[in-house]
Amino acid sequence: MEQYLVDHGLKVTVVDTKGRCLVADRDFSPGEIVLDQEPYSSVLDAESKSLRCDACFRCSENLQRCSACKSVSYCCTSCQRKEWKLHKSECQMMVKLSQAKQKLPPPSLRLIVRLVIKRRLQASNVFPRTNVDNFEIVEALPTHFSETGEERLVLYAQMSNLVKAIVTPLEVDLKETCELFCRIACNAHTICDDEFRPVGTGLYPVVSIINHSCAPNSVLLFDGRRAIVRAIQKIDRGTEVTLSYVELAGSTKTRQKALKEQYYFSCHCTRCMNAETTEGTREDSILEGYKCSNEQCDGAVIQERDQPYFRCILCGLTHDGDKFKRLESMATKLTEEANAAVKSGNDARARSIFEQTEAIQTTLYHRYSVHLMRTRDGLLKVCMSLKDWNAALKYCHLTLPAYERSYSMKSPLVGLQYYTLGKLQWFLGDSLEEISGVEVLNRAKEILSITHGSSSKLVQELSSMLLEVNMEAAYRVQKGLMK
Ligand SMILES: C[S@@+](CC[C@H](N)C(=O)[O-])C[C@H]1O[C@@H](n2cnc3c(N)ncnc32)[C@H](O)[C@@H]1O
Q1: Which segments of the chain belong to CATH 1.25.40.10?
Q2: How far is the CA of 211 from the centre of ligand 1 (A)?
Q3: CB of 187 sitting under 6 A from ligand 1
Q4: Ligand 1 atom with least separation from CA of 212
Q5: Are 56 and 76 in contact (CB under 8 A)?
Q6: Is residue 186 in contact with ligand 1, taking CB distance under 6 Å?
Q7: Cβ distance 183 to 143 under 8 Å?
Q8: Hey, what CATH class is 409-483 in?
Q9: 3-state helix, strand, coil in the chain (%, to 5)
Q10: What per-residue confidence (pLDDT) applies to 477?
Q11: Which CATH class is domain 2-243?
């Protein structure tokens, strides 16, 4: 692996507090690929199985199901052939399960089954191994076994028994498999499409060397199931390459909690360290605190340490905490109902509940609140699904300032939100005889060319749209239809 990293201008160092770190051994420019890797083991989510090829993870309208197990599909014979050595053992197990009228194992379990099979096939030289595709580099990843809670270990032990039953007659060591579950929990990545919708899970042992930062200098995207790490800012030689493991829209407390629960560490990145300053406290309370009831004040309200009351961090006005809690619990309940309606495909109902939630949250939270941002995002999606483009445009507009505040300006999520806004503006502006989407689409292109790469399908589509929009704008200016 060392040579592979040298060839890519990278090296590994070890730090007491973090373990291994991936460090740039040359300068990387924004948009440059730092690292890309095929997974050691990967699996599609249940919802994506009928839409995507099990080998390349791309969507296809010509999927052919494996005629034996009928549980996986491929887009072409080349993909099927490429996967056959690995799928062969799994296929026999799937057939046995379906003959015994048993349900297919869940994706996390199938990921381990595939890992165990691949390990065995590589050990017996049936499947080729390379310096970045072998079980030893999987084994080098941390497990946090001793820190894993008893409840979770019991679950992993039960799942390991299932793995053992499924992969018979392969030998399976229960403790080792249990450790594999722990390893997957803190090293595997969710595979997403270009718009960050999850499609599956994969284990990428080289990418997994990259540590977390809440202000990361890289972003992880996927081309099919191939992981691609891109620099989103200049990474100087000697600097550690970092990615974010968690949702970045949230206060330091929320991010730290998520990191501790799944990855067992406390983050000391610049963003987390800044949280201890007055400016950091203010930022965190804006993202997740309540709104100050003083009409002249733009502050956010947080609970005073060891006190029952709440105080605005800007004007100092005290507030009744019970009222906040009551409204918050109503909004949380409504959000759950709205999400359930989305899941069941009832967009009209989801919209009506999200609207009630938004009304409560507007009185409860600051305008940059992540809770309000998520509700408006939900409204944006259901309104698009209901083809109410004007309402979708309104909610997209409302989300953007909160997006820019909670994510970095170089975040792909900000770029995608600009893209959605530009498309909606262009679409609606067209009928209003004015074009306002150009600037917004240019901003989207600027960000997405870095995060997704200028040759990506998404940026190509965006560029074609911009060309069309610019031509139309020039035509309208010429005809005096637009200033
Ligand atoms: C995916 S691995 C990253 C590579 C790991 N450092 C190694 O030695 O292989 C995730 C684990 O690395 C450690 N880690 C990642 N980011 C960290 C950070 N910012 N601070 C401290 N530990 C970190 C934690 O132990 C975490 O569970």
Answers
A1: 278-406
A2: 5
A3: yes
A4: 16
A5: no
A6: yes
A7: yes
A8: mainly alpha
A9: 50, 15, 35
A10: 76
A11: mainly beta
Residue with the smallest CA separation from ligand 1 atom 26 is 263
- By CB atoms closer than 10 A (0-12, 13-18, 19+), residue 382 is buried
Chain length of the chain:
483
In this predicted model, what pLDDT tens digit does every residue of 248-307 receive, in sequence order? 999 999 999 999 999 999 999 999 999 989 889 889 999 998 999 999 999 999 887 778
Q: Establish whether residue 263 lines the binding site of ligand 1, counting it when its CB lies within 6 angstroms of any ligand atom.
A: yes
* 267 ligand 1 Cβ < 6 A: yes
> Is 260 touching ligand 1 by the criterion CB < 6 Å?
no
Ligand 1 site, residue 138, Cβ cutoff 6 A: no
Residue nearest to atom 19 of ligand 1 (CA): 212
CA distance linking residue 137 with residue 117, whole number of Å: 16
Ligand 1 atom nearest the C-alpha of 17 is 21
Enter the pTM of the model: 0.93
Domain with CATH 2.170.270.10 in the chain: 2-243
For 278-406, CATH gives 1.25.40.10
